[in-house]
Amino acid sequence: MGGAASVRQPSYVLTLDGPEQPGLLHAITGLLVGHHADIRELNQFDDAAAHAYMARVEFAVPPEHDPGLPALTDAVEDFCEPWGLRAVLRRGADRVRVLVMVSKFEHCLNDLLFRARTGDLPIEIVAVVSNHPDHRDLAEWHHVPFFHLPVTPDRKEQAEAELLRIVADHKVDLVVLARYMQILSASLVTVMQGRVINIHHSFLPSFKGARPYHQAHARGVKTVGATAHYVTDDLDEGPIISQQVQEIDHTYTPEDLVVAGRDTECKALSNAVRWHCEGRVVIQERRTIVLR
To answer: What is the layout of strands, in order, in the sheet containing 223-230?
Structure first.
């Protein structure tokens, strides 16, 4: 005989970073306990060299004591000001609104669409944008709007203006470059700073240009891998979020390397999207701290 159904408590995720100071953790937990919070997960990192502190806290609040996100946000902001902290607070159940950009290779797009559809990632893919029309059917099968934005030297500025319109119209929180083979302009990167994630093969910079896996095969590489990072003005030099590596040997053909590389690209990118959307990533100058 079943008991009474339990009431789901409102949950929140709080990410903080700022200068390292004595008593900070005690103060943070005191703030939350003062709001009747039940702390479910807490990760922190003291960077002694940089004198910096980072923390991520998941907590739940009983419904009868839940003031709601706006009121909690005000309380957190008031708390952070004297400590010199930056904070991001969100509801734990909220899904991040993601726009995926892709060119010809669809493996990362397909992986993200599947993970979003099954609930494996805390995201809602609200649009797919491509400079080619190839993947319209795939996006629409998942009931995701598809936008074909051709990019040529004479219409690159127009294409990026259209992209920003789509970002605004669909209230996009994060843009994911899932093997999008166009370079974003510095002005676009500035507007979207900290909200664009890219994936590339880890052979960079040794194997730049076309057919990197074939170049790697010719050099007899012993590992393949992929790197997911935030996009900055420096091409493929943004803060790294996630990396994956797979050992290979001389029996691998160039085609085998492509297959292995695709697997590492999908995993590195999905990890990066997951950690960003779960509030686990803190950007610290040219690197990231991932609290997990």
So the answer is: 146-148, 123-130, 96-102, 174-177, 196-201, 223-230, 240-247
Q: DSSP for 27-50, please give it.
A: HHHHHHHHTT-EEEEEEEEEETTT
**pTM recorded for the entire structure:** 0.91
What is the span of the domain harbouring residue 195? 96-290
Catalytic residue among 47, 94, 134, 236: 236
Q: Quick check: is 157 in a domain? A: yes
- The residue from 57, 91, 125 where one domain ends is 91
Quick one: 157 and 83 in the same domain?
Answer: no
Are both 178 and 269 inside the same structural domain? Answer: yes
Looking at the domain assignment, is residue 45 inside a domain? yes
Looking at the structure, tell me whether residues 68 and 111 fall in a common domain.
no
263 is catalytic: no
Place of tokens 């910079």: 205
Q: pLDDT tens track of the chain, all 292 residues? A: 344 444 457 799 999 999 999 999 999 999 999 999 999 999 999 999 899 999 999 999 999 999 999 999 999 999 999 999 999 999 999 999 999 999 999 999 999 999 999 999 999 999 999 999 999 999 999 999 999 999 988 889 999 999 999 999 999 999 999 999 999 999 999 999 999 999 988 865 677 777 888 888 888 889 889 999 999 988 778 999 999 999 999 999 999 998 999 999 999 999 999 999 999 999 998 899 999 9
